[in-house]
User: Fold this.
Amino acid sequence: MNKNWDEILKKYVYKINSPDGRDTFGSSSELVRKIIDFSHFEPSDTVIDMGSGWGNLTINLSEEVLKVIGIEPNKKNIDEAKKRTEERGIYNIEYIKGSFEDFKCKTKVNAIVSSITFHQVNPENKRKALANVKKALNEGGRFILCDTLILFNPFSELEFFNSVYRYLLSRTTPDSIYEKYIKPNMEEDSYIYSWEDMKKYTPEKFWYYSLNELETIVDELEMKIEEIEKLSPFFGILKITNR
Ligand SMILES: C[S@@+](CC[C@H](N)C(=O)[O-])C[C@H]1O[C@@H](n2cnc3c(N)ncnc32)[C@H](O)[C@@H]1O
Assistant:
């Protein structure tokens, strides 16, 4: 199973020391294609790319739609994205400094897309982040969320969650966090890690969230999860509509 997961991660994400100097991940060209195909954008759409980073998805998306607004909190990442955009002679992208929590965009759009970013929003801010997404969407608009999240029930599938926990934390948590918080607490193989353990041993910023938690917030905000493409039990693309 783990070998299969390695292949999935290798296919869809690449490890990078990002322009802002962090050990993180970027969407591979295969993932960018998958997100675009899943989204069914119209050529007349204006789309927000939230957490646009160094312009990976943003630049490819700009070929499919009228305009892309890349929103990103880190200036160094924006500068790199602008440089790459200019080098390619692309004129339909606007980059704005902002975040899920601090949404500066004044225009309402039909679609917001976000790739491997939402897990970086602190758990207590996730509701506010999604409320901001809703505010920026026209009625019937959609939020295309591609991210790592637990797509099964971690409480009823205890042993499966344990294997995902052991795998994911070793592969996706930055080395410095893994060495300091997780490795010292790694129990022998017979120990079954639970959802509560994930919270106990991992700094809040690195907690995984589950489909179930997301669904609760989406329901409260009167939005709807319309479609899910599972790329693995812990990674997928979701279409969330503003009803
Ligand atoms: C893993 S990178 C992904 C970049 C790009 N979306 C991609 O798929 O290649 C995550 C990006 O999200 C940004 N980010 C972090 N926290 C954020 C937040 N709360 N709201 C929006 N973006 C955030 C980071 O600065 C970084 O550029």
